[in-house]
Design goal:
This protein has 143 residues and is mainly beta. It has one helix and twelve strands. This is WxcM-like domain-containing protein.
């Protein structure tokens, strides 16, 4: 799996990572280009999110991401311009792959939730659609 491959827009899927069991505790690992469909260019995480807060509210032109709940839980609302779906993340071995041109919103964070995101590109404000109508218009232009 190479990051130079241009994947279609609108893909969302759960990714299961390996788990190594040990009496001292479990270990899960991720390798870019192996367990996930891109090379990792940026990692960031959200924590101390108030339980009534909403995050996200945007889409990306080119960026691909995998979102994990390392601790606690939260809901991801996904919109590809045709249909909407929801995913509850609560298992640190399972991440949600979100391809480019997918609107995402996050809410219902549990107390102490930690969200980690693996991204295919460094931060670039120009890659964001922060206006939903602009996002829908971009979908029509991307066909």
């Amino acid at each position: 799996m190479s990051s130079s491959v241009v994947r279609a827009r609108g893909e969302v899927q759960l990714i299961n990572l390996p788990q190594v069991h040990d009496p001292r505790g479990d270990l899960t690992f991720v390798e870019g280009g192996n367990h996930i469909p891109f090379d990792i260019k940026r990692v960031y995480y959200l924590y101390n999110v108030p339980v009534d807060a909403e995050r996200g509210g945007h889409a990306h032109r080119d960026l691909e991401q995998i979102v994990f709940a390392l601790s606690g839980s939260f809901r991801l609302k996904i919109d590809d311009g045709r249909q909407k779906s929801e995913y509850w993340l609560r298992d640190p071995r399972k991440g949600l792959y979100i391809s480019r041109l997918i609107w995402r919103e996050m809410d219902s964070f549990s107390q102490g939730a930690v969200c980690m995101v693996l991204a295919s590109h460094p931060y670039d404000e120009g890659d964001y659609y922060r206006d939903y109508d602009g996002f829908i218009s971009a979908l029509r232009d991307d066909v």
